[in-house]
Design brief:
- The structure is a homodimer.
- In chain A, about 35% of the residues lie in helices and about 20% in strands.
- Chain A has twelve helices and 24 strands.
- The longest helix of chain A has 21 residues.
């Protein structure tokens, strides 16, 4: 390959953005396509979903991030398909963008293990829109419970289930428990938000399976202290609006959130080559898609086997390291003709946050839990946030929340109307009550 | 009237909230109904629409504001009608809430002088949803222009018209001009955002008609320095998607915003009594609706005649003063049997912001302009924002923007898809270009 090559990156997440930055620094022409105008700092997305942060706090315009690189173009559009033979990326508006080198970094979507009908009743958390929707529905459950009169309906509405005991599930459960127990506690008249039932369901034997057993136990113990009910070794077998089935038992719920699994972005299939069980593109050690000369994949959409033959986990640090690596490797390849360099992953440790003062961190044999892990997590995440403004704002909000248990982003979107939610029983009972008022 | 009375307030804007707070302080039972869960600090809404602030920065949960008053109930629901004879407020979900005293504080909506078909192509700015929509469409116009190739289409997309030269129109024009000239300037490759045409159309002879001529001239001069084209004595006679007609001439536009007029909230009509030319309820000097014993109206939905017989303007300070007044007057009436007290408006001065360092302030003969007015405006608005957190966050964001011209909330909502906007000509031209890429 020699310049000028048409290099197209699809996806401006951690992986795609790092590739763009590295190529941009080398002055190589590149087009980065994304269906959002912003890069999203996904590790903090659960805080938008639980009303602790505003959406713009963790979203940065892609254009602004790459504006210092004049050879980098940003195309705001949605990729609908790939014409591999014609070497074209097809946009949903009918346009086609030619490429010589294609870099796919389109990430992942919630994965429902073949139960795609569950997507409508149990949203996952991947985009700003997901987070805003979850925030609205979460706050709405309490609002409708406040207007309901019969205790059964109130209890059902104030039962929030989270499916999946990995870091996202643990973070959501902890944050929702704190929201109900501290932030909302004094704001209602007919209900006691602190009595909300938060249920965390994990199909495996313990929470945080990627961590050591000791840290799993700590996380479970801390969540229980926040009032979270943990169900392990329980598989979900039914999900409908307002009802959750676990191991044959049915539970009335106000909201169910999905954190049990992800699948590769559907665009991976469009390449027309073999994918793994999660739909990921299998890449060689240089991040090139197996069997393809000019298509690369990285981040959550790629299956990169480590030394033991297992795929690397879907973590921001994996995506970021792969992005930096591929960017530099490709830049040297294109400008100096050097061979592509094999990628090696260096884990910087795993972390999960449970609540105030409570987090776990593990890197190999090094394990920390409690407030030191929490503080380290907070400092690292503020540091990692792109853009100085976001860092300052997020710090201020965190300090504020830390001091007061208050949350600043309790906004219910108007699109989510209050009348849309309560079941028929709740509605008739409510009317009766208000007639008496 | 004697306690216990069922007091219902509809609307938690500046007016309704002040009534609720005053009655809450007096320990009187009251229900405040709003179709949003938040109180909105409307004077800063244009900053959300122009990507300078996040929506949650200027929205505060109503429950949180009144939580210290145990006798105050918040009902999150939409009022669809009023059954005056049955003394019931009818909610859109079918419920009915009985009242003995009804206080209407439902504010205003954009008013199109009978041209309601213009609402779809020229959004006004009243709610968080309006602001987010305008922000998305504004940023989207530049994104689509970036992808267009023919200069005519680009010029059309980058023509933003604002109809109405009052404070809102001036603030929008100034803020959009700064956004295009400073914030977006370096972020695009094919267009020069700083060359965007911002047109401010005013049907009357000058901008800011409520201010003195000297300050009007200053505002016009400052806006022109920012590149805003001002058309006075020009009435809009045509509005369609992408086209604006002024005094017989047609101008291609990327976006038209409506700041030319407001009308009372449609709920005013539901009372079934006489309203003025803007649909406002005519109230006596105690804010009681004319001819009604137990219905009050205040803020933008009320027509309160001043000493000269002219209605008070639709300003936050009018709403707030009326709310505080009615709250105290009604509390004494209900608890001590005192007669209702006539309301007197005390103007704290009018202000409008044009841009960095540029604002006008006028109170009677006292007039200020320039950076002193701007600083006073900034301090006052931060102070007025409800909730300490918002104040801190907004201060930080303003300081940041002041130092860098940067904006933190440049988020295009995914609901607004890029393919939805360009006209048929633009789309075909774009495709041609990308085929060549």
């Amino acid at each position: 390959m020699q310049q000028p090559q048409r290099i197209v990156i699809v996806g401006a997440g951690f992986a795609g953005l790092e590739v763009a930055k590295a190529l941009g620094k080398a002055g190589i022409d590149v087009t980065i396509i994304d269906r959002h105008n912003h890069h999203l700092f996904q590790p903090l997305l659960y805080q938008v979903a639980t009303a602790a942060l505003s959406a713009p706090d963790i979203a940065e315009p892609i254009r602004r991030i790459v504006r210092r690189y004049p050879s980098t173009k940003v195309l705001f559009g949605e990729v609908a398909g790939i014409d591999r033979d014609g070497r074209r990326v097809l946009l949903s508006d009918g346009e086609a963008i030619r490429y010589d080198v294609l870099i796919l970094a389109t990430g992942s979507v919630p994965g429902y293990f073949g139960r795609d009908d569950w997507a409508a009743v149990s949203p996952g958390l991947k985009t700003i829109e997901d987070a805003r929707k979850i925030r609205s529905e979460l706050l709405l459950a309490f609002e409708i419970a406040e207007r309901a009169t019969d205790p059964v309906t109130q209890e059902r509405l104030m039962t929030i289930a989270i499916i999946g005991g990995g870091p996202t599930g643990v973070e959501l459960a902890g944050s929702i428990a704190e929201l109900s127990r501290y932030t909302l506690a004094r704001d209602f008249r007919n209900i006691r938000p602190e009595s909300a039932r938060i249920i965390l369901v994990e199909a495996g034997p313990r929470l945080l399976p990627a961590f050591s057993e000791k840290l799993s136990e700590y996380a479970a113990e801390r969540l229980q202290r926040l009032g979270v009910k943990i169900l392990t070794n329980k598989a979900v077998d039914h999900l409908s609006d307002g009802e959750l089935g676990i191991a044959g038992e049915r539970i009335g719920v106000g909201l169910v959130l999905w954190a049990a699994g992800v699948a590769a972005s559907p665009l991976a299939r469009e390449v027309g080559v073999e994918t793994d069980w999660l739909g990921r593109l299998i890449v060689d050690d240089t991040l090139r898609v197996r069997g393809e000369e000019n298509i690369f994949a990285l981040g959550d959409v790629a299956h990169f086997a480590d030394a033991d033959g297992r795929p690397l986990p879907g973590l921001a640090q994996v995506a970021k390291q792969q992005g930096m690596h591929l960017g530099h490797s490709l830049a040297r390849h294109l400008t100096h003709g050097d061979a592509l360099v094999p990628f090696t992953y260096r884990s910087r440790g795993n972390t999960a946050i449970i609540g105030r003062h409570a987090a776990v961190f593990e890197q190999g044999r090094f394990k920390v839990k409690g407030w030191i892990a929490w503080l380290a997590w907070a400092i690292i995440h503020i540091y990692l946030l792109i853009g100085f403004q976001s860092r300052v704002l997020v710090s201020v909000q965190w300090l504020w929340r830390y001091a007061t248990y208050d949350r600043g982003a309790r906004l219910i979107a108007r699109e989510t109307t209050p009348k849309a939610r309560p079941g028929p029983k709740a509605a008739s009972r409510k009317r009766k009550r208000h007639e008496k008022t």
